[in-house]
C-alpha cells in the first residue's frame, strides 16, 4: 500500500506529521514532504488515521 498526497489540497498544517512522523515532514518553508510512500504493515492504522485527520482531505491510501 502507498500513501498519496494531493499537493493542491495540502495546506501544510502538519497534522499528518504528528500522527505519522516517519512518513511526513513539513519543512520550514511550510511544504509537506513525504518521507516514504510504501506503508509498512504495522503502520497501516497510523496512516489511516492521518488520512481521516487531514483537514483538507489531501491524503489517501492506494492498494
Ligand atoms: S494533514 Fe493534510 S493538509 Fe496538513 S500537512 Fe498533512 S496532508 Fe497537508
From TrEMBL:
Coiled coil: none annotated. Ferredoxins are iron-sulfur proteins that transfer electrons in a wide variety of metabolic reactions. This is Ferredoxin. PANTHER family: FERREDOXIN. Residues 1-29 form the 4Fe-4S ferredoxin-type domain. It holds the Pfam family Fer4_15. Keywords: 3Fe-4S, Electron transport, Iron, Iron-sulfur, Metal-binding, Transport. InterPro entries: 3Fe4S_ferredoxin (IPR001080), 4Fe4S_Fe-S-bd (IPR017896), Fe-S_cluster_ET (IPR051269). The keyword Acetylation does not apply. Its cofactor is [3Fe-4S] cluster.
Amino acid at each position: 500500500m502507498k500513501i498519496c498526497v494531493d499537493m493542491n489540497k495540502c495546506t501544510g498544517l502538519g497534522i499528518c506529521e504528528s500522527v505519522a512522523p516517519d512518513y511526513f515532514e513539513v519543512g520550514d518553508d511550510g511544504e509537506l514532504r513525504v518521507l516514504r510512500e510504501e506503508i509498512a504493515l504495522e503502520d497501516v492504522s497510523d496512516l489511516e488515521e492521518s488520512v481521516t485527520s487531514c483537514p483538507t482531505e489531501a491524503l489517501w491510501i492506494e492498494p
